[in-house]
């Protein structure tokens, strides 16, 4: 009888120790499984955020271009034509971008000639504040805030409108590729695009650097 009780007690103690050890925490395998799951979920969340951020930037560029296109059409209706870039001495996109901004804000006429303060008319870009940038002495792009006094002053601001990826919107009129109308587009997140400086005799083949342009048919009026 004594031996039976003793064995029973020892069995109970062993069982209790095992139960306590099981309740003490996760095993190494369990911890590894949890870490792997957390890693997978984090990767999925990061990937979803990157996709959402890119989609948001592209949608913003599309909206801004549509607003600029409407501004250009209103400008043409009032001024008899779009702002012209063919008289510029530089082919730099920033220089064309400066004229583009100055014309649509009524600082210069469609040929780039300065308009006197008392003769300045309509501002065709009522919501341009978030898009305006300039370059410092080192050529670095920086955010610019223009006051009303600066806009009404004699000195013309050398600033330009930038897309969501901090690249100047490309504007050209007349188009050097021979197509009718003006050229206006964003180079997209890669900041690269083809350049056509002579009249196109045929629709060019779309290059890889143009795949993310906004809109996707510029420059060159690619076959969609």
Tell me what the structure shows:
By secondary structure, the protein is mainly α. It folds into two domains: 2-43, no CATH class; 61-210, no CATH class. 40% of the residues lie in helices and 7% in strands. It has four helices and five strands; from the N terminus they run αααββαβββ. The strands form two sheets. A three-stranded antiparallel beta sheet has the order 2-1-3. It has a two-stranded antiparallel sheet with strand order 4-5. Strand 1 and strand 2 (141-143) form a beta hairpin. The longest helix is centred in the first third of the chain and has 52 residues, at 28-79. It is elongated. The N and C termini lie far apart (93 Å). 23% of the residues are buried.
Summary keywords:
224 residues, mainly alpha, 2 domains, three-stranded antiparallel sheet
In short:
The chain is mostly helical.
Write the layout of secondary structure elements.
Elements lengths: L1 H22 L4 H52 L13 H12 L27 E4 L5 E3 L4 H4 L8 E2 L8 E3 L10 E3 L39
Antiparallel strand pairs: 1-2, 1-3, 4-5
Order of helices and strands: HHHEEHEEE
Question: Which term fits the overall shape?
Answer: elongated
Indicate the percent of residues in helices. 40-55%
Q: Helix/strand-derived class?
A: mainly alpha
Q: Low-confidence spans: pLDDT under 50, at least 5 residues?
A: none
Radius of gyration: 32 Å
Please give the alpha-carbon distance between the first and last residues. 93 Å
Number of strands: 5
What is the mean pLDDT? 80
């Amino acid at each position: 009888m004594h031996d039976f009780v003793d064995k029973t007690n020892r069995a109970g103690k062993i069982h209790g120790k095992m139960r306590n050890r099981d309740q003490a925490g996760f095993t190494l395998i369990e911890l590894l499984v949890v870490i792997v799951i957390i890693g997978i979920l984090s990767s999925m969340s990061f990937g979803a955020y990157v996709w959402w951020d890119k989609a948001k930037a592209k949608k913003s560029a599309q909206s801004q271009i549509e607003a600029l296109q409407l501004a250009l059409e209103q400008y043409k209706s009032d001024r008899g034509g779009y702002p012209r870039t063919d008289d510029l001495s530089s082919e730099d996109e920033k220089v064309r971008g400066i004229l583009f901004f100055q014309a649509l804000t009524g600082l210069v006429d469609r040929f780039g000639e300065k308009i006197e303060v008392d003769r300045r008319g309509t501002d065709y870009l009522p919501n341009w504040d978030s898009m305006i940038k300039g370059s410092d002495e080192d050529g670095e792009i920086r955010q610019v805030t223009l006051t009303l006094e600066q806009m009404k002053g004699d000195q013309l601001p050398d600033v330009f409108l930038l897309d969501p990826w901090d690249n100047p919107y490309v504007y050209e009129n007349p188009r050097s590729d021979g197509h009718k109308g003006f050229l206006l587009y964003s180079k997209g997140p890669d900041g690269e695009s083809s350049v056509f400086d002579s009249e196109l005799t045929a629709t060019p083949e779309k290059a890889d650097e143009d795949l993310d342009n906004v809109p996707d048919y510029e420059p060159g009026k690619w076959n969609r």
